[in-house]
Amino acid sequence: MTKTAIIYSYNTKKTSKIATLIQEGFNDPAIEMINAEEITEDTFLSFDHIIMGVATWFDGELPNFWDEFVPALEEMDLTGKKFALFGLGDQKGYPENFLDGVGIMGEILEEQGAALVGFTSTEGYEFESSRALRNEQFMGLAIDYENQGSMNKQRVAAWIDQLRKEFA
C-alpha cells in the first residue's frame, strides 16, 4: 500500500487552507498532513506520493523553511516517488515571477529522480514569466488567492481528480 503525505507550512494561512481543501477532497484519512517546518529526511523518504505546498516569496524565492530543507533534498534519491506541487502566487503583484517557487522545487525534485505529476493549464492566468512553466503548463496547481480566490475550490477539485489517476 502506498503512503501519501501533504507537506506544507502550518504557519502559512493561505497554503494551509489549500492543503486542507486537498485533504478534504481526497477524503482519505490515510493521507498524512506534515508540517514542512518540522520535516525530517527520514519522514520525507517514508512516503511514496508527496503533495507539497510551495508558495513563492518575495521576488521569486522559496519560503525559508523549504530553502533550509533543500541541502537535504539534494542528497536524496527520489527515484520511484511521485510528487505533486501546489503553489500560491500573485500574478498581478508579481507577474514576472508568478509561481517561481513551484518551478524551483520541481527542478530540485526532478534532479533527484522524482516523477512530477499534476501539471495544469496556464489558461485563465495573466503573468509575464514563471519558472513553473514546462511545455506551456504549470508544474503543479497554481493558486492566486489575491486575484482569483473564487476559483480555488473548483481548481482544487479538478486537480484532485487528476491526481487520483496520476498517482495510480
For the sheet with most strands, the description reads: 6 strands, parallel
* Amino-to-carboxy terminus distance: 11 Å
Overall pLDDT confidence: 96
Task: List the uncertain runs.
Answer: none
Word description of this protein:
With 168 residues, the protein is of the alpha/beta class. The chain has a single domain (4-167), classed as Flavodoxin domain (Rossmann fold), CATH 3.40.50. It contains six helices and nine strands, in the order E-H-E-H-E-H-E-H-E-E-E-E-E-H-H. The protein has helices at 13-26, 41-45, 64-73, 100-111, 145-148, 152-167, and strands at residues 4-8, 32-35, 49-53, 82-88, 115-117, 120-121, 133-134, 137-138, 140-143. Strand 7 (133-134) and strand 8 form a beta hairpin. The chain is globular. The relative contact order is 0.17. The model has no long low-confidence stretch (mean pLDDT 96).
Describe the structure concisely:
The protein is of the alpha/beta class and 168 residues long. It is built from 6 helices and 9 strands.
Set down the secondary structure blueprint:
Elements: E1 4-8, H1 13-26, E2 32-35, H2 41-45, E3 49-53, H3 64-73, E4 82-88, H4 100-111, E5 115-117, E6 120-121, E7 133-134, E8 137-138, E9 140-143, H5 145-148, H6 152-167
Parallel strand pairs: 1-2, 1-3, 3-4, 4-5, 4-9
Antiparallel strand pairs: 6-8, 7-8
Helix pairs in contact: 1-6
What brief labels describe this structure?
single chain, 36% helix, Rossmann fold
